[in-house]
Amino acid sequence: MIIAIDGPAASGKGTLGKRLAHHYGYRHLDTGVIYRAVAYALMQSGHDLNDEAAAVQAALELDPEKFGNPALKTQKAGEGASIVSAIPRVREVLVNFQRQFAADPPGAVLDGRDIGTVICPHADVKIFVVADPKVRARRRTMEARARGEDADEAAVLADILQRDERDKNRPIAPLKPAPDAYLLDNSQLDIEGGVRAAIDIIEAVRAGRSRG
Ligand SMILES: Nc1ncnc2c1ncn2[C@@H]1O[C@H](COP(=O)(O)OP(=O)(O)OP(=O)(O)O)[C@@H](O)[C@H]1O
Ligand SMILES: Nc1ccn([C@@H]2O[C@H](COP(=O)(O)O)[C@@H](O)[C@H]2O)c(=O)n1
Q: What is this model's ipTM?
Protein backbone atom coordinates (compact mmCIF):
# COMPACT_ATOMS: atom_id res chain seq x y z
CA MET A 1 0.00 0.00 0.00
CA ILE A 2 1.17 3.55 -0.76
CA ILE A 3 0.00 6.37 1.49
CA ALA A 4 0.48 9.88 0.07
CA ILE A 5 0.47 12.82 2.46
CA ASP A 6 0.64 16.40 1.23
CA GLY A 7 0.12 19.76 2.81
CA PRO A 8 1.60 23.19 3.49
CA ALA A 9 4.67 24.01 5.57
CA ALA A 10 4.67 22.79 9.18
CA SER A 11 1.20 21.26 8.90
CA GLY A 12 2.39 18.06 10.56
CA LYS A 13 2.92 15.91 7.44
CA GLY A 14 6.27 14.52 8.55
CA THR A 15 5.11 13.71 12.07
CA LEU A 16 2.02 12.01 10.72
CA GLY A 17 3.95 10.19 7.99
CA LYS A 18 6.44 8.80 10.47
CA ARG A 19 3.70 7.65 12.84
CA LEU A 20 1.66 6.01 10.08
CA ALA A 21 4.72 4.22 8.71
CA HIS A 22 5.42 2.86 12.19
CA HIS A 23 1.79 1.80 12.64
CA TYR A 24 1.64 -0.10 9.35
CA GLY A 25 5.24 -1.33 9.28
CA TYR A 26 6.00 0.67 6.14
CA ARG A 27 8.96 2.82 5.13
CA HIS A 28 8.66 6.60 5.31
CA LEU A 29 10.12 9.28 3.05
CA ASP A 30 9.92 12.97 3.97
CA THR A 31 10.37 14.29 0.42
CA GLY A 32 10.98 17.85 1.66
CA VAL A 33 14.38 16.70 2.85
CA ILE A 34 15.37 15.98 -0.75
CA TYR A 35 14.84 19.59 -1.82
CA ARG A 36 16.43 20.81 1.39
CA ALA A 37 19.51 18.69 0.59
CA VAL A 38 19.74 20.19 -2.90
CA ALA A 39 19.44 23.73 -1.51
CA TYR A 40 21.97 23.01 1.22
CA ALA A 41 24.49 21.68 -1.32
CA LEU A 42 24.17 24.93 -3.31
CA MET A 43 24.52 27.06 -0.19
CA GLN A 44 27.61 25.12 0.86
CA SER A 45 29.25 25.47 -2.54
CA GLY A 46 28.39 29.19 -2.75
CA HIS A 47 26.05 28.88 -5.74
CA ASP A 48 22.98 31.02 -6.21
CA LEU A 49 19.78 29.10 -5.40
CA ASN A 50 18.43 30.00 -8.83
CA ASP A 51 21.47 28.55 -10.61
CA GLU A 52 19.70 25.85 -12.62
CA ALA A 53 22.79 23.95 -13.78
CA ALA A 54 24.26 23.78 -10.26
CA ALA A 55 20.89 22.77 -8.78
CA VAL A 56 20.41 19.98 -11.33
CA GLN A 57 23.94 18.73 -10.63
CA ALA A 58 23.24 18.73 -6.88
CA ALA A 59 20.02 16.78 -7.51
CA LEU A 60 21.91 14.23 -9.61
CA GLU A 61 24.47 13.83 -6.81
CA LEU A 62 21.83 13.44 -4.08
CA ASP A 63 23.11 11.25 -1.24
CA PRO A 64 20.33 9.83 0.99
CA GLU A 65 23.00 9.03 3.61
CA LYS A 66 23.12 12.79 4.28
CA PHE A 67 19.36 13.25 4.84
CA GLY A 68 19.86 13.13 8.62
CA ASN A 69 22.08 16.25 8.65
CA PRO A 70 20.48 18.63 11.24
CA ALA A 71 21.46 21.59 9.03
CA LEU A 72 18.69 20.52 6.65
CA LYS A 73 16.08 21.27 9.34
CA THR A 74 16.78 25.01 9.50
CA GLN A 75 14.46 27.75 8.27
CA LYS A 76 17.17 28.82 5.80
CA ALA A 77 17.33 25.35 4.24
CA GLY A 78 13.51 25.26 4.03
CA GLU A 79 13.40 28.61 2.30
CA GLY A 80 16.19 27.53 -0.07
CA ALA A 81 14.31 24.31 -0.77
CA SER A 82 11.23 26.22 -1.84
CA ILE A 83 13.38 28.12 -4.38
CA VAL A 84 15.23 25.14 -5.92
CA SER A 85 12.04 23.05 -5.93
CA ALA A 86 10.46 25.45 -8.41
CA ILE A 87 13.12 24.57 -11.03
CA PRO A 88 11.44 22.05 -13.38
CA ARG A 89 14.66 20.14 -14.25
CA VAL A 90 15.42 19.64 -10.56
CA ARG A 91 12.00 18.09 -9.99
CA GLU A 92 12.37 15.87 -13.07
CA VAL A 93 15.69 14.49 -11.82
CA LEU A 94 14.14 13.61 -8.44
CA VAL A 95 10.98 11.89 -9.62
CA ASN A 96 12.44 8.41 -10.10
CA PHE A 97 14.08 8.29 -6.68
CA GLN A 98 10.73 9.02 -5.04
CA ARG A 99 8.74 6.61 -7.22
CA GLN A 100 11.24 3.84 -6.60
CA PHE A 101 10.99 4.43 -2.86
CA ALA A 102 7.20 4.24 -3.09
CA ALA A 103 7.26 1.02 -5.11
CA ASP A 104 9.57 -1.03 -2.89
CA PRO A 105 7.86 -3.53 -0.54
CA PRO A 106 6.26 -3.80 1.95
CA GLY A 107 4.58 -0.39 1.50
CA ALA A 108 5.46 3.25 1.89
CA VAL A 109 4.33 6.55 3.28
CA LEU A 110 5.60 9.62 1.43
CA ASP A 111 4.95 13.17 2.51
CA GLY A 112 5.49 16.38 0.56
CA ARG A 113 3.66 18.78 -1.73
CA ASP A 114 3.03 16.77 -4.92
CA ILE A 115 2.90 13.16 -3.78
CA GLY A 116 -0.79 12.62 -4.49
CA THR A 117 -0.80 14.73 -7.65
CA VAL A 118 2.51 13.95 -9.42
CA ILE A 119 4.75 11.38 -7.71
CA CYS A 120 2.13 8.75 -6.77
CA PRO A 121 -1.11 9.67 -8.52
CA HIS A 122 -2.23 6.05 -8.01
CA ALA A 123 -1.53 5.99 -4.26
CA ASP A 124 -3.99 3.84 -2.31
CA VAL A 125 -4.81 6.64 0.13
CA LYS A 126 -4.14 10.37 -0.20
CA ILE A 127 -4.39 12.71 2.76
CA PHE A 128 -4.03 16.49 2.51
CA VAL A 129 -3.07 17.83 5.94
CA VAL A 130 -3.85 21.42 6.85
CA ALA A 131 -3.78 23.58 9.98
CA ASP A 132 -4.33 27.25 10.65
CA PRO A 133 -1.12 29.17 9.75
CA LYS A 134 -0.91 30.70 13.25
CA VAL A 135 -1.16 27.24 14.81
CA ARG A 136 1.57 25.99 12.47
CA ALA A 137 3.81 28.94 13.31
CA ARG A 138 3.29 28.36 17.05
CA ARG A 139 4.18 24.66 16.77
CA ARG A 140 7.24 25.33 14.62
CA THR A 141 8.42 28.03 17.02
CA MET A 142 8.03 25.73 20.02
CA GLU A 143 9.93 23.03 18.14
CA ALA A 144 12.82 25.39 17.34
CA ARG A 145 12.94 26.69 20.91
CA ALA A 146 13.01 23.12 22.22
CA ARG A 147 16.14 22.65 20.09
CA GLY A 148 17.64 25.67 21.83
CA GLU A 149 17.12 28.08 18.92
CA ASP A 150 15.98 31.65 19.48
CA ALA A 151 12.89 31.55 17.22
CA ASP A 152 10.64 34.57 16.67
CA GLU A 153 7.04 33.45 16.08
CA ALA A 154 6.14 36.37 13.78
CA ALA A 155 9.18 35.64 11.58
CA VAL A 156 8.32 31.93 11.53
CA LEU A 157 4.76 32.78 10.45
CA ALA A 158 6.06 35.08 7.70
CA ASP A 159 8.37 32.33 6.43
CA ILE A 160 5.55 29.77 6.43
CA LEU A 161 3.21 32.09 4.52
CA GLN A 162 5.90 33.02 1.99
CA ARG A 163 6.78 29.37 1.35
CA ASP A 164 3.12 28.40 1.01
CA GLU A 165 2.57 31.16 -1.54
CA ARG A 166 5.62 30.11 -3.56
CA ASP A 167 4.69 26.44 -3.39
CA LYS A 168 1.05 27.02 -4.36
CA ASN A 169 1.76 29.37 -7.23
CA ARG A 170 4.67 27.74 -9.05
CA PRO A 171 3.81 26.44 -12.51
CA ILE A 172 5.26 22.98 -11.88
CA ALA A 173 3.81 20.53 -9.32
CA PRO A 174 2.14 23.24 -7.23
CA LEU A 175 0.96 22.51 -3.72
CA LYS A 176 -2.68 21.46 -4.01
CA PRO A 177 -4.85 18.56 -2.91
CA ALA A 178 -5.38 15.75 -5.41
CA PRO A 179 -9.07 15.56 -6.37
CA ASP A 180 -9.34 12.23 -4.51
CA ALA A 181 -7.45 13.36 -1.37
CA TYR A 182 -9.05 13.37 2.08
CA LEU A 183 -8.68 16.68 3.89
CA LEU A 184 -7.41 16.45 7.46
CA ASP A 185 -7.42 19.68 9.49
CA ASN A 186 -5.41 19.12 12.67
CA SER A 187 -5.61 22.71 14.00
CA GLN A 188 -7.64 21.53 16.98
CA LEU A 189 -6.00 18.11 17.34
CA ASP A 190 -2.91 16.99 19.16
CA ILE A 191 -0.50 14.57 17.47
CA GLU A 192 -2.33 11.48 18.75
CA GLY A 193 -5.66 12.88 17.56
CA GLY A 194 -4.24 13.59 14.11
CA VAL A 195 -2.81 10.08 13.83
CA ARG A 196 -6.11 8.51 14.90
CA ALA A 197 -8.04 10.60 12.36
CA ALA A 198 -5.64 9.52 9.59
CA ILE A 199 -5.87 5.84 10.54
CA ASP A 200 -9.68 6.13 10.50
CA ILE A 201 -9.47 7.49 6.94
CA ILE A 202 -7.07 4.75 5.80
CA GLU A 203 -9.11 1.97 7.39
CA ALA A 204 -12.33 3.30 5.87
CA VAL A 205 -10.68 3.30 2.42
CA ARG A 206 -9.38 -0.24 2.95
CA ALA A 207 -12.76 -1.49 4.15
CA GLY A 208 -14.43 0.11 1.12
CA ARG A 209 -11.94 -1.61 -1.21
CA SER A 210 -12.37 -5.05 0.32
CA ARG A 211 -16.18 -4.71 0.07
CA GLY A 212 -16.16 -3.47 -3.49
N1 LIG B 1 -1.45 17.38 15.34
C2 LIG B 1 -0.44 18.04 15.92
N3 LIG B 1 -0.62 18.65 17.08
C4 LIG B 1 0.35 19.33 17.66
N5 LIG B 1 1.59 19.48 17.15
C6 LIG B 1 1.83 18.89 16.00
C7 LIG B 1 0.84 18.14 15.34
N8 LIG B 1 1.39 17.65 14.20
C9 LIG B 1 2.66 18.10 14.19
N10 LIG B 1 2.92 18.83 15.27
C11 LIG B 1 4.16 19.55 15.58
O12 LIG B 1 4.21 20.62 14.63
C13 LIG B 1 5.55 20.78 14.17
C14 LIG B 1 5.60 20.63 12.67
O15 LIG B 1 5.30 19.28 12.35
P16 LIG B 1 6.04 18.54 11.15
O17 LIG B 1 7.50 18.78 11.18
O18 LIG B 1 5.56 17.14 11.17
O19 LIG B 1 5.40 19.34 9.94
P20 LIG B 1 5.70 19.17 8.39
O21 LIG B 1 4.44 19.48 7.68
O22 LIG B 1 6.35 17.86 8.12
O23 LIG B 1 6.75 20.34 8.19
P24 LIG B 1 7.63 20.66 6.91
O25 LIG B 1 6.87 21.67 6.14
O26 LIG B 1 8.90 21.19 7.45
O27 LIG B 1 7.81 19.39 6.14
C28 LIG B 1 6.39 19.75 14.93
O29 LIG B 1 6.94 20.39 16.07
C30 LIG B 1 5.39 18.70 15.37
O31 LIG B 1 5.76 18.05 16.57
N1 LIG C 1 7.29 16.98 -2.47
C2 LIG C 1 7.86 18.18 -2.13
C3 LIG C 1 8.41 18.41 -0.90
C4 LIG C 1 8.96 19.64 -0.64
N5 LIG C 1 8.99 20.57 -1.59
C6 LIG C 1 9.65 21.86 -1.40
O7 LIG C 1 10.63 21.81 -0.37
C8 LIG C 1 10.37 22.80 0.62
C9 LIG C 1 10.74 22.24 1.95
O10 LIG C 1 9.86 21.18 2.26
P11 LIG C 1 9.47 20.76 3.76
O12 LIG C 1 8.35 19.78 3.61
O13 LIG C 1 10.69 20.15 4.36
O14 LIG C 1 9.06 22.00 4.46
C15 LIG C 1 8.90 23.16 0.46
O16 LIG C 1 8.60 24.48 0.87
C17 LIG C 1 8.67 22.96 -1.02
O18 LIG C 1 9.04 24.10 -1.76
C19 LIG C 1 8.41 20.32 -2.81
O20 LIG C 1 8.40 21.20 -3.69
N21 LIG C 1 7.86 19.13 -3.07
A: 0.98
